[in-house]
Amino acid sequence: MVEPKGPQNLGAVARLCENFGIEDWVIVRPRLDLTDPANLEQAEKFATGKSKRKLATLQVVDDLRAATEDCEISIAFCGRKTGKKSPTQVKIGDLTRAVLAQKSGKAALVFGSERYGLSVNDVSLCSRTVCLSTEADFPSMNLGHSIAAVLSRFHQDATDSLHLASKSSVAVVGPGESAVSQADYRAMLDHGKKTLLRLGYTKAGNPDRLLATFRQVFDRAQLRANEVRAFRSVFARIGHQEFPEGKGNVRPSSEATGHEEFPEGKGNVRPSSEAIAREEFPRSGKGIRAL
Question: From CA 67, how far away is CA 81, in angstroms rounded?
Fold first, then answer.
C-alpha cells in the first residue's frame, strides 16, 4: 500500500490479509503516524480477532523500489487507464494465471492512496498494470473494496489450480533458468536508457519515450534472468562503440555500426556475413554474460 492515510483502511486490510493468506504486507510512505496509539487503536477495531497480529508485523519503507526489489513481478492496480509510458496493461484473469504459474519468485500487488491512487512514477516502477472492471460512469472504488476484490480473485484462482499443480506441464521458469528480480529488470532498463542516450536515439530529446516502447515488448516477453543478462551484454557491447554526440533522432554513422550501410525502406534488412564477421565480441565482464 502506497501512502495510506486512514487507520480504518489499515485495519480492514489487515483483516483481508488474514482472510486470504497474505503474509508479506508492506506500507510505503504512510501518511499517518503508525506509532500513534490512537491510530493503532482505530486500526485494531477494523482488524478484529487474530488479524490484529498483522498490524504488529507490517513493514514500512520509504520507497516503492525497496518494497519490490526482491519480487519477480509487480502489479500496479489503477482505477483508470494509464499512459504510454506505463507498463503493459493486462486483465486480472490473465495476470492471476501467469503469477500462479511462476512456480518461483514473489509477486507484489501494489495499491495507491485512498484519495489519489498511484502516482505516474509509482506505476512506472511496476512491471504490469491492471485496471479493475467497473461501470464506465463510476469507476472509482474504495481502497479496501478494491483490495478485497483482487485478493479474493487470486485466492480463488490459487484454490482452483491446486489440484492441477502436480499435473501441469507448463513451466514458466525452465531447466537452467531463473526468475529475474525487479531490481535486475530495472537495472537492465536503466542500462538500455544509457545506451539510447549514447546512440543519440531519442524522441524530442527524451529517451524515456522510446524506452517505453521497448519496455512494452520486454514486459510481454516476461524475460528471465539469462535473457536480461543477454540484453545487458548487447548494451555493454554497444557501449564500446563510438557514436556521435547529439540530440533528437540521430542515426549512427556506418563506421560506428560495423561499417555496414543499411538502406532505408520497407522489409527486413539483414547485415552481410562479412559485416558480422568483422565484429569482435568481448568476454563477459563482472555481472554480464556475453552471447
Answer: 24
Domain locations in the chain? 7-165, 182-261+269-278
In the chain, the amino acid numbered 68 is T
* Cα-Cα end-to-end distance for the chain: 40
Say if pTM beats, i.e. exceeds, 0.85: no
Taking CA 124 as the corner, what is the angle to CA 2 and CA 14, rounded to the nearest 5 degrees? 25
Beta bridge partners of 67: none
pLDDT-above-70 percentage for the chain? 68
Tally the C-alpha atoms within 13 A of residue 92's C-alpha that lie toward its C-beta: 20
Amino acid at residue number 72 = E
pLDDT at 174 over 50: no
The predicted-structure confidence for 94-136, as pLDDT tens digits, reads as follows: 777 667 666 556 889 999 988 888 998 898 888 888 888 888 8
How big is the CA angle at 219 (ends 23 and 125), to the nearest 5 degrees? 55
Q: What is the pLDDT of residues 200-246, one digit of tens each?
A: 776 656 777 777 778 778 877 778 888 888 888 888 888 776 544 44
Q: Is the CATH code 3.40.1280.10 the one for domain 7-165? A: yes
Chain centre distance of CA 192: 16
Q: Are 288 and 268 in contact (CB under 8 A)?
A: no
Distance CA 183, CA 108 (A): 13
